[in-house]
Design a protein that fits this description.
single chain, alpha+beta, four-stranded antiparallel sheet, 4 strands
Length: 119
């Protein structure tokens, strides 16, 4: 699995179909992306849009808008772990991760894996 950091417009085009498969579950992510692309919510320049790809297919997505923690979609555990490895060296260090409980519960339980700063 690979994590691809994409600009928001590319992310919307590449991860959008995956997110829209579960529109209720991904409502916050879809709204966040749409509001920033439309200009309703300005971009800060610090956002990161990350898509997880496995054998050419999108299997996960995340948007990080510091100072809040990253917001994961309903990703499988393997994709969550790939994202955790991607963000393990994040600067500033992550202090929180958000998303649907199954997507974050097991991988985030291993706090050191995400590189979360102590709170």
């Amino acid at each position: 699995m690979r994590c691809l950091v994409e600009d928001l417009a590319t992310f919307a085009a590449t991860a959008g179909d995956w997110l829209r498969r579960e529109p209720v579950l991904h409502n916050v992510l879809l709204t966040l992306v749409a509001s920033r692309l439309s200009g309703d919510m300005p971009l800060s320049g610090d956002e990161q849009s990350v898509r997880v790809v496995d054998t050419g297919l999108t299997v996960g997505a995340l948007v990080w808008t510091p100072p809040r923690g990253p917001l994961l979609g309903a990703v499988p555990t393997a994709a969550a772990r790939a994202l955790a490895e991607h963000f393990a060296e994040a600067a500033p260090p992550l202090v929180e991760v958000h998303g649907p409980v199954p997507a974050v519960q097991e991988p985030v339980a291993d706090v050191a894996h995400w590189g979360l700063a102590p709170t």
